[in-house]
Amino acid sequence: MKVTILGTGTSCGVPQIGCQCEVCTSDDPHDKRLRCSALIETEGKRILIDCGPDFRQQMLGIDFKPLDAIFITHEHYDHVGGIDDLRPYSVFGEVNLYAEPYCAQHLRERLPYCFIPKEKRYPGVPALNMNEIEPHEKVMVGENPAVEVMPIRVMHGRLPILGFRVGRLAYITDMKTIPEEELEYLKGIDTLIVNGLRHYPHPTHQTIEEAAAFSKTLGARETYLIHMSHHILRHEEEEKNMPPHVHMAYDGMKLTVE
């Protein structure tokens, strides 16, 4: 399984407009963070997790091939703001989106022209097929062989959102807490991609220290932090301070998960 981490930034991205802090003015490309998204390639399938406002920019350097599925963690703009930019992928046929019912409804309300019936769709709009999913109900993507994606419940403050497990990879963003019963669905994880916003507490996001503790609880072999703000040290310095097997992810990072 190949994973490309397309974006590692928080909702404002890094650099943040107007900010002159050490991170925002850094020349290190590792300190430039687009909004969070990841592309998973396995068994000949291509699975995108989240489609934020930087989607177009993120995909310009990626081979133009069909996307077999797009899984949405939740409806906040930094995770769905690029859905209209799926237009080019319509040349391959309808693009399958997967989201919880309440999230799917919000997207239909915000982007009604993207989800009108096929026979009424006017030229140029993205050809999208919305599939509603629930935690713990596995989704099979494609066939011969199909790829199993397991949605799990995590809490973004008081908002219930989704994380996803694909094989021995777990991708979780915007989590503050996770219900105890969800840990059963994360047993045997090899690689964890998870949010770590900053070092001091936030009401709806994990700190870097909380993310590292969560990784230790799961026993993940390697953990990569995403959804990072500019309220941290520069990438190079933070990486030196990470616990063993916990890493600062960066935009464009490529991972191989057995």
Average pLDDT metric: 96
Radius of gyration: 18 Å
Give the topology string: H per helix, E per strand.
EEEHEHEHEEEEEEHEHEE
Largest sheet: 7 strands, mixed
| Strand residues, percent | 25-35%
Distance between the termini: 6 Å
Structural class: alpha/beta
User: Helical element count?
Assistant: 5
How are the strands of the largest sheet arranged? 6-5-4-3-2-1-14
The dominant shape is globular
Helix content: 10-25%
Number of β-strand runs: 14
Indicate the low-confidence ranges by residue numbers: none
Give a description of the structure:
It is built from 5 helices and 14 strands. It has helices at residues 55-59, 77-80, 101-110, 208-218, 235-241, and strands at 2-7, 37-42, 45-49, 69-71, 95-99, 128-132, 139-141, 147-156, 159-166, 169-172, 191-195, 222-226, 246-248, 253-256. The mean pLDDT is 96.
Quick take:
The protein has 258 residues and is an alpha/beta fold. The chain contains 5 helices and 14 strands.
SSE order and pairing:
Blueprint: E1 2-7, E2 37-42, E3 45-49, H1 55-59, E4 69-71, H2 77-80, E5 95-99, H3 101-110, E6 128-132, E7 139-141, E8 147-156, E9 159-166, E10 169-172, E11 191-195, H4 208-218, E12 222-226, H5 235-241, E13 246-248, E14 253-256
Parallel strand pairs: 3-4, 4-5, 5-6, 10-11, 11-12, 12-13
Antiparallel strand pairs: 1-2, 1-14, 2-3, 7-8, 8-9, 9-10
